[in-house]
Amino acid sequence: MELFFFIPIALLSVLLAFGVVFNKSPIGSAVSLIGMMLCLAGVFVIQSAHFLAILQVLIYAGAIMVLFMFVIMLLNLKTAEDTVWKAREHNTLLSVLTGFLVLGLVYKLVEIATDANFGPGMPVAENFGTTEMVGAKLFTDYVLPFEVASILLLVAMIGALVLAKTKTD
Amino acid sequence: MIDTVTQFLSDNLVLIVGAVKAAIIAVALLSSVPLLVWLERRLMGRFQVRLGPNRVGPFGLAQPFADAVKLLFKESIVQGSADKFLFFLAPAVVVFTAIVTFSAIPFGASFTLFGQEIGPHVANINVGLLFVFAISSMGIYGIVLAGLASNNKYSLMGGLRSSAQMISYELTLGLAALGVIIVSGSLNLVEIVEDQAVVPNIILQPLAFILFFTAGVAETNRAPFDLPEAEQELVAGFHTEYTGMKFAMFFMGEYINMITMSAMVTVLFLGGWNAYFFEFLVPPVIGPIIVFAAKVFLLLCVFIWLRSTFPRIRYDRLMTFGWKVMLPLAVLNLMVAGFFKVL
Predict the structure, then answer these.
(1) Phi/psi at B28 (nearest 5 deg)?
(2) Looking at the domain assignment, is residue B256 inside a domain?
(3) Domain annotation covers residue B55
(4) Which residues on chain B are in Cβ contact (under 8 Å) with A75?
(5) pLDDT digits (tens, 9 = 90+) for A31-63
(6) Which domain holds residue A7?
(7) Which member of B127, B133, B159 has the closest CB to residue A131?
(8) Does some domain include residue B63?
(9) pLDDT in tens, B218-252
């Protein structure tokens, strides 16, 4: 039953991810990205992490992607369609760096795949993935990473503001 | 043969019951749209000291059906400069999200039918409140995509305004609902209603109720917050280029969203299907659903009342009001609610 839902959702999410990269119009890419995030939320539901799934839809698909659409609308990027592919120049250093990145990713994937246990899954705890569980974990075991991440986001936000401000002056 | 059929039915009972409930909800919501349109036009007529539609059928009841037939037979125009796929996707997104949002809302106490306990809601999700917010925030895309795909400056402006407005007021909506979550200690909508068996949340959280309802009117793009579709300045806004049934689908979405928002206010603040002083009048099984429907009906009348009373506010005033009045008040309400919870 789990596989019955997992396989189509996973396939669709991979297809939509390709759609994000290969779509020529920015709106098409954004729509594909929204679809992919919804599929990821579906995968989370199958893994009985309901709270995470809802947050995925609420924050990524609902809030962040709306801002993406906002930017696309404001800049009217539709005109960029034909310039995107011409502007790409060959850069050896960048290619080598990207190659290393891809190699590292592939290595990690192979490592995970060989370590993974494809037998019957571990039974999950009664309250796994509930709001209480996630909240308790966040504010006890993972309180330091949680705070660091929020400070990081704040710093990034201030940085963006400073960058935008100096340009207009 | 019969054995295998009954075996199959009993094995998949949960799925079958869920599918039947989903079908009932979808049909009920879609068929309540024409009735709501009729109610709005009749009430608006009375508010403006005129009769409203009264020619087609008794009390003009057949008027919305005549309109629906007219819309179905209209020519569907798609202008050449439009992005075809997104142009067709946008109204579908609006109606789909509007219907799916309602699936998490419980509209009656659970009852027993053929030895099965059936709750009058499609899905009892333990994060039901967040589910409603998540799916209704997806509804923005319908309007944004309509604005983008039409390839028309008025539509683009309408879409832009709408997304900005919905992002701004969604914050207030969520923060006001957080006050209720603090009071009842649950994200599950059934538990929130059961928690209000004695006192409805409107008495415990009056400020949150006002904020939630106001933000709800803004979220559903209803007057006086109907800036995305301001006829005078935007030539109808995001749906300028739409004709026929696709045009009607935006209105179906808006009216279903109105029903959903009224149902959410009922669940969160008015005690859902609890009848309080009139509990002795309520018959079993069907009674709680009638109580719930009555509360939703009252709120829908308030929606229409607001529309015929207030003029549309200016766009910059709308944003200022959202960010500088509603949001600080919602944060204040949240802090007070948290303070009393700790006490």
Answers:
(1) -60, -45
(2) yes
(3) no
(4) none
(5) 889 889 989 988 888 887 788 888 888 888 888
(6) 1-83
(7) B127
(8) no
(9) 888 777 877 666 666 666 677 777 777 888 888 88
